[in-house]
Amino acid sequence: MSDLATPRYRPLKFGVTRVQMREGAGGVRYMVADQPLQPYARRMTDRLVHWAEVIPHKTFMARRVKNADGSTGDWQHISWRQALDSARRIGQALLDRGLGADRPVAILSENSLEHALLALGCLYAGVPHCPVSPAYCTVSQDYDKLRHVLATLTPGLVFAADAARYGKAIAATVGTDVEVVLAAGTLEGRAVTPFAQLLATEATPAVDAAMAATGPDTITKFLFTSGSTKAPKAVVNTHGMWCANQQQMRQSMPVLGEQIDGGGPVLVDWLPWNHTFGGNHNVGLVLYNGGTLYIDDGKPVPALMGETLRNLREIAPTVYFNVPTGFEAIANAMKTDDALRKKLLSRVQMFFFAGAALAQPVWDALHESQEREIGERIVMGTGLGMTESSPFAIFITNPNVKAGYLGVPTPGLELKLVPVDGKTEVRYKGANITQGYWRNEEATKDSFDEEGFFSTGDAVLWIDEADVHQGLKFDGRIAEDFKLATGTFVSVGPLRAKIIAAGAPYIQDAVITGINGNEVGALVFPTQAVRKLAGLPADAPLQDVLQSASVQAHFRNVLNQCAATATGSATRVARMHLLHEPPSIDKGEVTDKGSVNQRAVLKHRDALVQALHGGALPFTLIPEAKP
Q1: 3-state class (DSSP) for residue 446
Q2: Residues 281-311: tens digit of each pLDDT
């Protein structure tokens, strides 16, 4: 085992470690990587054709077969040659239907081989597609967000995996003039097209001509933002954006272009393709670098995490991506699961997380298992990006990563650091940045400044002001920050991270309250692990669990711990309440990736916030420590 004072890491090359800076007016600064962006493909389909010729029989994508009882069986593989052949056939079927940007393809379903092949067919034919959040169909009760998405897109074809799960949503929202394609099942009273019929279409020279006519400015897909207090916006994604971003990733993370065990990157991945992390970042890196993606039907929730662990005991990834709750479950499992630890760590070169902060105890547990199994640590990569940046933008420069570190810009992306209300906003300009939002000129205009930089709304600080080459760290979202009645600014992002870290592993997220008030409060969404603290039956209602004496005592200690390190009213949480009602996807409080939307929660739970600060909310926790 390595000396914890000087930890040893599995070797990983960092592509950008130095930057160039220039000064602007009014305290504005500009930052770029010290290396240029190298040439990249004109369109992602060029990479598909390339790999289908170079490694035709290698697996492009695989997914376990779904059994009739809902369980999963052996892996079904799609080779690179099969992927190209299917893309040409499906692309021909889409051309035959006259589809295009004004009548794109809407994909309502979760990650699947059919979803992947349909998306490739769209790419090949030059027909934009939109992966829609499955939760808008399967969790939502009113389908309002689904209606908004479809009204924005006006699709000419809607695909769903099966009638049983998606039929009700389709019946409620999809007009009878829109063709519905199903991978399985039928819809009562409505004609549908089997997905197999698209696959059976004979490709003609017309589809190859359509592919040849596409270029960097051709729209590949629309990805909707999660939305906060406003309706989700459709981010325009083009071939040029996607290809530029994949080359940027390859230069910032050279491991993606390396041949490991004779092949490109291998992923075992559950991240949903309607999000840019899963659909652009991860699917893209496989497509661009000739890798293999094993679709993981698991998810970092108690009912599905077992499937993820099963897959990781069988398939060894070369790079592994997840959100903090996923890494938390893996860290806990690796403590006792020898088979998981051995397989997962056998050839993985880098872990990578995005989303909320990764609590230090989770980080420590991962490192402990790694050192125990392989005698060294795996670098935990992280950075900053967004749907509008395709998404990769900023990445760390060395293995010594701490919570909140972001790093430096990827090659070809210029950062503009702008003083805003006492903070520093980071803005983007580069080939990977979207041209705007589909059919929303007002939102597009509002998102770019006078120099053409995209305004992210993310605030940053220097990791070390004396050494700009170490790069930036996260300082929250400017729109989330607020003032107390005293005029003191509350920096929401760092305070949330502090609460989550102090309460790990029992806090999913914390929503900071107190706008224009005298003190800061917090509404806490607990994780399921909190049930272990209560000593109640496993099926006890969550409200009873949260109101139990042991759980209340634990979180009061968390609150005391946070208060003890506070430096003033803006960093001291004066009251806290545990929420038994989970965040609502219909109200935009949470995405299906698990990210909680602060503004939406505050909007829809305003009465609860008022009661919290008015002293009328039962089971409100107050710290014992003095400020």
Answers
A1: helix
A2: 999 999 999 999 999 999 988 889 999 999 9
Average pLDDT of the chain is 93
| Percentage with pLDDT > 70 across the chain | 97
pTM equals 0.88
pLDDT band at 116 (very low <50, low <70, confident <90, very high): very high
Least confident window among 23-32, 104-113, 613-622: 613-622
Structure letter (DSSP) for residue 29: E
- C-alpha 186/C-alpha 192 separation (Å) is 7
Measured distance CA(204)–CA(200) in Å, rounded? 13
Taking 50 as the threshold, does the pLDDT of residue 410 lie above it? yes
Q: 518, exposed or middle or buried, with CB in 10 Å at 0-12, 13-18, 19+?
A: exposed
Whether residues 573 and 602 fall in one domain: yes
Question: What would the DSSP string read from start to end of 596-626?
Answer: B-HHHHHHHTHHHHHHHHHT-STT-B--SS-
Q: Which residues contact 400 (CB under 8 A, 6 or more apart)?
A: none
Confidence grade of residue 319 (pLDDT, cut at 50, 70, 90): very high
Same structural domain for residues 31 and 97?
no
Question: Would you tell me how many other CB atoms lie within 10 Å of the CB of residue 110?
Answer: 24
Q: How far apart are CA 11 and CA 294, in angstroms?
A: 25
> How many domains does the chain divide into?
3
What is the pLDDT, as a whole number, of residue 627?
44
Domain end position, chosen among 214, 239, 272: 214
Sheet holding 350-353, edge to edge: 319-322, 350-353, 380-381
* Nearest C-alpha neighbor of 431 from the set 591, 261, 242: 242
Q: Cis before residue 411, ω within 30 degrees of 0?
A: no
Do 414 and 461 lie in a common domain? Answer: yes
Residue 229 has pLDDT above 80, yes or no: no
* 18-26, long-range: CB < 8 A, 24+ apart: 18/408, 18/469, 19/408, 19/409, 19/468, 19/469, 19/471, 21/468, 24/416, 26/419
Is 564 inside a domain boundary? Answer: yes
CA angle 164/169/171 to nearest 5° reads 90
- Ranges assigned E (strand) in 140-192: 157-162, 179-184
C-alpha to C-alpha distance for 334 and 336, rounded to whole angstroms: 5
Identify the DSSP state of 583.
P
Q: Which tops the pLDDT comparison, 354 or 131?
A: 131
State which residues form the domain around 565: 482-614
Instruction: Report d(CA 548, CA 551) in Å as an integer.
Output: 6
Which residue, of 192, 214, 236, is where some domain finishes? 214
Closest CA to 100 of 78, 129, 121: 129
Residue 227 has a pLDDT of 66
